[in-house]
Amino acid sequence: MISLITPEPILSLTNIGKSFGNVDALDGVSVDIREGEIFALLGPSGCGKSTLLRIISGFETPTRGELKLDGQDMTRTPPNKRPVNMVFQSYAVFPHMSVADNVAYGLKMEGVGSDDIQHRVDTALSQVHLEDFKHRMPDQLSGGQKQRVALARALVKKPRVLLLDEPLSALDAKLRDAMRLELVKLQETVGVTFIIVTHDQSEALAMADRVAVLESGRLRQVDTPSGLYQRPVDAFVADFIGRVHSFTALHIEHANAEAVVQVAELGEIRLAMDALPSGVRAGAQTDVPAIIAFRPESVAVSLAADSPSTASNDIVLPGVLGDIAFQGQHSIVEVTRGNRPSVTATINHSSLASLQQQPIGTPVIARCARADLMLLPAELGHDTEQAQ
Amino acid sequence: MSLEDYRQQPKVFAAFALPTLVWLLLFFVTPLTIIWLYSFGENVSLVNIETTWTLDNYVRIFQPEIMVLLWRSLWIAGIATVICLAIAYPIALVIATAREDKKPWLLLLIMLPFWTNLLIRTYALLNILGTRGRLNQALEWLWGVANTAVNRIGLGGMQLLGENFTPLKMLGTPSGVIFGIVYVSLPFAILPIYSSLERLDRSYLEASLDLGAGQWKTFRYVLLPMTMTGVVTAAIITFIPALGQFITPDLLGRGQVDMIANVIERQFKRANDWPFGSALSLFLLYITFVLLAVRSFYDSRRSH
Question: Could you give the ipTM of this predicted complex?
Fold first, then answer.
């Protein structure tokens, strides 16, 4: 057999579970993190991502499962014995030590010689552009500067993995965008594997090489940002990563190489099995509740008067023109459909021209190409149901 | 209504402040002023004191007998404070890290002794610390057990533990007085340390562990420095009353371990030398001021 050459994972989590009392914070989480990547743990609050981070750093011991770093079992190694460092959400920069002393702290604990400490502290501070703040005390620093101290303090230890707990949440909007880019650049410079915990999907998509979506303590999908966006494995991921319009699938049947789906409002939709992602194909075979979904980007809007009456292969949703929200590069057009949920379309400016002159209420048609439809398991049973 | 509103309504503010002000003026400032005037006075008859602005009373403080007592008061209070802090810190740490629903109960246990009068508690200590007291009974029992064990392993002939149990003499010794002071002051030392621990964000400790420090180094370099304000407050709140302790050295010291407050008491009673007693009292007050000044200096340095 020919095996694919995959690099040995730097961090390998196998079937990690954590229970607090009789509440399962994490359940059966298995994921491999590759050397040198930016890996994001993404999920809504309470999904278990912070618990997972604390398990990786050593502040929590998993109830079940195994954690290996560079192939060595570290499931029960205390935090001070792990080659893993953390940038805390609150930064936790020691207020009674100068910037330089904060950065030197971890090296002193290691027993590094003082000349070496000097040199490494200077290097770390220049990496985060804080050379001139060496002798400042933390209360003389801004929030962003404190974060840089926390970063330097962790990186100076040359960790195998750097953990960042909601690194951008405490910064104001402008600084956040700048810091996002800077963190990515910093990672490229130092080459350390980053694991970032965040609840903000745009943050995860923009920064990470791969993203793990967690929900209710379970791993839903691990993929590249574009993979998550284009091939979500279920309704939760599809809705969490970007926006989707979803329609309940009433009945799924298989004919030849096609899935025949009866959908409320849309009627019968035939989808080629080959076109479905593998995970979905499995889902489509069973009688689990499923949805048909598409993204606003896949929707085109045209005037009802201009549209050819004989529908092509697209699915067609007639309605009337609602609000048009200008978004810079594109606009969001709302198609209202009486008391049914309205459909929004993200449309670029050239397609917008004909619509813009029309008054609100003009009959329009929203259409979506069959190829852009996603058939996804709806995953009833827990929170998703209440959220909808 | 906030405090700001009161400030804009001077009459309302005055109405609230006046009773306190009158109280302080009548029962604190006035007596203190009288004592202050006495300290510059002389006995002119058995009951009359005349303020002659003499500095004699203050000069007399520096006579060797008084200096010995003052020095003893300082070191007894000092040792009691150090012991208090050493016991209080771990207790405060246990309470601060206890589960949220257990904290009020633990704090209640700390405060419970205050529901009993100080005099009664000190008398109870007499029963414990005496030569035939509970402490010595317990020690004697332990001695007996240990001695039997020594005999069993065949070393009885060497009399390793002495021929007989010698009871510890606690009453009438500085150690007994220190024990009493520690016992009385402990809750006052625990509370400020507890509150500074409670305010400390736990992520500082986790950051220290994360950076490779063990538990001891985390305590030494992060936890202790970051709760120093609480420790200093605890030290002062223990040391100042300990310095002026009067009942404890009287009862547990059996008159053999007099502290400065016992001398002051004597000036106002048996010796009938109110001017000197006043001067001694104020001298103690000045020491307190100096300590508080040190503390506020420490605080102001920390906040920069």
Answer: 0.82
